[in-house]
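Query structure, 320 tokens:
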């Protein structure tokens, strides 16, 4: 960073790095030989776009002339990847290869980072730059702290509740009991083509878990309206639990909430042994690994509740 925060030195180093990467693209391409467009775009994403993205939220406040130099380098890269003529418009090339202009990509990354910061506690140091300042409105500065909240307001996402980015639990993760997961049913159903899937699932449960209480969970989301819900069906009792949840959540989230509803019912009724059947493979893998890119709060809640409830056996079967 230079003393006046013009980012001239940084952008020049970025351009030099991208030009070297462009030479790599030229070495592996040709009119009648060389790598395919798909491979060239992968190289572009790994070597050039990643370098442009790094820190673009910060150096995006540089002058238009400096940003223009970065756009020229990107255009050269896309022209090599697509094999377009030098006279081809840059916008047409971007549409052809499915690549955003730098300004739009910076806007997307800025909003992603803004939402991520909103999910942190109030002690997060970046939140200080969102606070009111007497200089706001006096100067037109394009820095992240000055423009991010304004852009988020234009998008209409300032009032949306954001889940915590970092979930801290009172119980260490290594002390949480792991659920017993049975994946055999998945392979049996896939290999069985003569008998209906419903019959195979029921037969498997009767043979292996006949003494247990069977729960069937599912989550759904309307792709048009965004309406989401979760449900649990208790087969032996012919009882069901339904819950309307927040709109526009992921299908992964609806599956976890459905499992959590079943565990909460077990906590209240206290049956001896239960088996929960779900069709969310991603939810099962996340529960086993305790790792996920989203909704770690729900994953920890499922694991903690099964510990508090002293559920001795919780095999979760997958059926498709």
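Result returned for the query:
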């Amino acid at each position: 960073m230079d003393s006046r925060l013009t980012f001239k030195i940084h952008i020049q180093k970025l351009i030099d790095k991208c030009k070297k990467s462009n030479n790599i693209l030229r070495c592996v391409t040709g009119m009648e030989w060389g790598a395919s467009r798909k491979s060239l775009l992968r190289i572009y994403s790994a070597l050039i776009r990643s370098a442009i993205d790094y820190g673009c939220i910060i150096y995006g406040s540089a002058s238009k002339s400096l940003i223009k130099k970065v756009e020229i380098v990107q255009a050269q890269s896309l022209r090599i990847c697509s094999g377009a003529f030098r006279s081809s418009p840059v916008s047409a090339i971007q549409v052809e290869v499915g690549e955003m202009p730098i300004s739009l990509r910076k806007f997307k990354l800025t909003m992603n980072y803004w939402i991520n910061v909103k999910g942190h506690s109030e002690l997060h140091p970046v939140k200080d730059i969102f606070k009111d300042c007497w200089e706001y409105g006096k100067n037109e500065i394009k820095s992240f702290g000055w423009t991010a909240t304004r852009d988020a307001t234009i998008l209409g996402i300032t009032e949306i509740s954001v889940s915590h980015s970092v979930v801290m639990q009172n119980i260490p993760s290594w002390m949480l009991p792991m659920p017993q997961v049975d994946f055999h049913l998945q392979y049996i159903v896939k290999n069985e083509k003569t008998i209906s899937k419903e019959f195979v699932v029921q037969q498997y449960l009767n043979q292996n878990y006949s003494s247990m209480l069977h729960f069937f969970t599912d989550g759904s989301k309307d792709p048009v309206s965004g309406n989401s819900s979760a449900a649990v069906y208790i087969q032996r009792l012919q009882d069901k639990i339904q819950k309307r949840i927040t709109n526009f959540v992921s299908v992964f989230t609806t599956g976890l909430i459905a499992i959590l509803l079943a565990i909460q019912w077990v906590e209240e009724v206290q049956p001896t042994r239960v088996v929960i059947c779900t069709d969310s493979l991603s939810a099962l893998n996340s529960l086993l690994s305790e790792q996920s890119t989203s909704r770690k709060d729900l994953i920890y809640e499922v694991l903690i509740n099964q510990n508090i409830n002293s559920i001795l056996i919780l095999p979760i079967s997958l059926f498709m």
